[in-house]
Write a structure and sequence with these properties.
By secondary structure, the chain is α/β, with parallel strands linked by helices. The protein has one domain. 38% of the residues lie in helices and 18% in strands. The protein contains nine helices and ten strands. The strands form three sheets. Strands 7-2-1-8-9-10 form a six-stranded mixed β-sheet. A two-stranded antiparallel sheet has the order 3-4. Strands 5-6 form a two-stranded antiparallel ribbon. It starts with a strand and ends with a strand.
Length: 232
């Protein structure tokens, strides 16, 4: 089964469950960048509520592809981001090691925000002692970029030799199982099971960035969370 997904910077746990469900993932980096989307933003737990962090980009536009938008976190932005993490998670049990992971990602130079997102995801797997099989659509499938959304996903799935494609649960609003079936591809959506753990607040806030999951849970537990999903 193949997963195809835009690369996000430190995405929520459902993204990692998508990767878990698939044999391979293609990072969809040559599709349009969405302003106010999740490519360069996500949520953490700060002062007992969810807080949106943003990685600044240069001239982010929906007329540009993800791999055409460059991140520009200058030193001031990095210090601010690291301070936000400190205020949010300094009392979390795995703060020290997870902060090392975050700083390693944020201190690198990237050609585009897609590459930063990919590196953040791969760094999580490296931290967990795991590897994944992955590619980028801009490299492996640039010639079919003009196809309609569903048709391109079907084309890439076929190209990689798979007969099944899995998407996040929100994809049900965009893609129809029957359409994929008629093209010889089985379409699945991933539904996250109950993932709950002790945070610092009184009330559990779900679906935050993977950063939150890593801060409060040991590696074995995180990997178990990755498997807590169903396919529909």
């Amino acid at each position: 089964m193949l997963a195809i997904m835009q690369p996000y910077v430190f995405p929520y746990i459902g993204y990692f469950q998508l990767i878990q469900a698939a044999s391979e993932i293609v990072f969809y980096d040559d599709v349009n960048y969405i302003k106010q989307g999740w490519v360069n933003r996500n949520r953490i737990l700060l002062n007992d509520s969810d807080f949106l962090f943003t990685i600044p980009v240069a001239k982010g536009s929906q007329n540009k592809k993800i791999n055409e938008v460059k991140p520009i976190p200058d030193e001031k932005c990095k210090r601010k981001f690291f301070l936000q993490m400190k205020y949010a998670y300094s009392k979390a049990p795995f703060y020290k090691e997870v902060m090392e992971l975050i700083k390693k990602v944020c201190k690198k130079e990237y050609n585009n925000i897609g590459d930063m997102g990919i590196d953040s995801i791969l760094s999580v797997y490296d931290y967990l002692g795991k590897t994944i099989k992955w590619s980028k659509s801009s490299i492996c499938s640039p010639l079919n970029a003009d196809k309609e959304k569903a048709d391109r996903l079907i084309d890439i799935t076929r190209q990689f030799g798979y007969k099944a494609y899995v998407n996040v649960i929100g994809g049900r609003e965009l893609y129809q199982k029957e359409y994929f079936n008629n093209k010889g591809i089985d379409l699945y959506f991933i539904k996250t099971g109950k993932v709950e753990y002790a945070q610092t607040g009184k009330k559990f806030i779900p679906n935050l960035s993977i950063i939150d999951v890593l801060m409060f849970n040991d590696k074995k537990t995180v990997l178990q969370f990755f498997k807590n999903y169903i396919l529909i």
